[in-house]
Model the fold of this input.
Amino acid sequence: MKRCWLAFLLNIALPVAPAPEYTIQAIRYATAPNVPVSFLVMGAPNDEKVDLAMVFWLIRGGGRTILFDSGFHHERWFKFVLPITDYLRPDEAVKLAGTKPEDVTDIVISHAHWDHLGGIDLFPRATVWIQREEFRYYTGEVWQPGGQAVPFDPEDVTTLVRLNTEGRLRLVDGDDVEIFPGIRAYTGARHTYASQYLRVDGNPPFVLASDNCYFYRNLEQHLASATFSDSDHAANIAAQSRMIKLAGSLDRVIPGHDALQFTRFPAVGRVARIK
Done:
């Protein structure tokens, strides 16, 4: 303590421990086949279809085992809008990457949609991180008359509230926030009320976009995501440009549902080694 105060008084900077060199793996837990690309990419032909990869990401380093998003497992969603094939429950899928569900220390939720939030109850020791405004809106306002609650699961909301009462929820307060050493959360893409994406430092850094950018095609052709409101198209494209800048390269931005991440990076079955 004396050394810290002395350094402060003398304006001497103490050495800062370097951030861990994290590893990142993409884990595909299911597929949604034959999805019209026009549902996801502005300007795509109506007759073009794609197999949608259902993915979350495993980040390890610095004594932490972190999931970015958590998949889903509630029965109602298997028949909601998209048919689901090749499904493996998220707590089983992480085992393919050599991780036990009980070893997951943290889950960072990009946004509150059913296929990203719905697995948080499968990892019994994990602390869940979500944007403060995302938590506030989807545990309250969206369920009021006139709210757009269709893509959200009331069971997930109940679980979020329970985790908060148990001390296992952390609220991320806005844009450009370091939540772990070398891992920062960013907002601005507005996929949901207050969705977030991650930059993972390292040599080199990577940005995990989740649904804030669906496909490499969005990035390469500067196309907005089709599910954003008309007023948000320009903001979505601007957010994609920011992701590229934060990553230092378009190739190091990982889109949320693009199966190409399993061919552009070394993969064994359902697991791709991003870094």
The chain has a mean pLDDT of 92. The chain has one domain: 21-273. Residues 21-273 form a domain with the Metallo-beta-lactamase; Chain A fold (CATH 3.60.15.10).
